[in-house]
Amino acid sequence: MASVRKPITPKPVRMRDKVLVMLEERCKGDQCQLCVSFCPKNVLCLTDKYNRKGYHPVTACDIDACTNCQFCELICPDMAIYLADRDEAEKVFKSHGLEEGTKIPELENDAAKEGGTD
Ligand code: SF4
Ligand code: SF4
């Protein structure tokens, strides 16, 4: 009898170990776009707003597609995007302890769904 391969199922989004963190004020956005170009899942895009440097910083347009591959973190020349431990990030996020300009799209989306933010 032929052996049967188990189906390869992607990890459910909320079971990923890490969350994507973006430091808006460090990002050179439209003058760089390295992470946007190299993300294999097209997760990233630019915001319309300006940061203090006058750039449009990067954001996540499709955070649910992120595979935690870490390409963006490795390629960013300004350390403006990285993956952080989910539990640690959740603690800081829920205690409102994030520094200004720090974005965690996945947690922001969750909070919005729960009615915590707009
Ligand atoms: S970790 Fe990988 S999939 Fe997720 S945003 Fe970065 S490059 Fe894209
Ligand atoms: S690689 Fe870094 S500096 Fe460049 S757009 Fe992405 S987050 Fe911003």
Describe this structure in words.
- This protein has 118 residues and is α+β, with helices and mostly antiparallel strands.
- The protein has a single domain (16-113), classed as Alpha-Beta Plaits.
- It contains four helices and five strands.
- The chain has helices spanning 34-38, 71-75, 86-94, 105-113; strands at 18-23, 44-46, 58-60, 81-85, 102-103.
- The strands form two sheets. A three-stranded antiparallel β-sheet has the order 4-1-5. A two-stranded antiparallel sheet has the order 2-3.
- The N and C termini lie far apart (56 Å).
- The mean pLDDT is 90.
- Bound molecules: iron/sulfur cluster (2 copies).
- The site of one iron/sulfur cluster has 13 residues, from helix 1.
Estimated structural class = alpha+beta
Total strands: 5
Overall mean pLDDT stands at 90
* Ends apart, CA distance between termini: 56 Å
Give me the Rg, rounded.
Answer: 16 Å
Ions, cofactors, ligands: which are bound?
Answer: iron/sulfur cluster
Strand percent estimate: 15-25%
Query: How is the CATH topology named?
Result: Alpha-Beta Plaits
Q: Under the CATH scheme, which class?
A: Alpha Beta
Q: Spatial order of the strands in the main sheet?
A: 4-1-5
Helix content: 10-25%
